[in-house]
Amino acid sequence: FVDFVSELENDRVGLILFAGKPFQSVPLSYDYDFLKDFISKMDIDTIDQSRNNLQGTAIGDGLVLASDVLSDETQREKVIILITDGEANRGVEPATALKLLKEK
What we know:
Layout: H1 2-6, E1 13-18, E2 22-29, H2 32-41, H3 59-70, H4 94-103
Antiparallel strand pairs: 1-2
């Protein structure tokens, strides 16, 4: 992902991390160096899944939050890249989230 960010020039990029709940970890920004640094420091424990309601994989919720973050970008193309290591087992079903994305 760091290689992908390194290729960008004029695009705002943000980062949403999710486990059982999504978090906007880096808001939309042109600060590619900060984003690459943040990504390089992430690991499996960045979200402490031992806390209540954070266990699991809420793919649909992550997609919905990403869509909400991008909703202000009305004049630009939008891309959501989803990277996950598990199957959706918490929150909104991914198929339902996709329907919501298409309606926006």
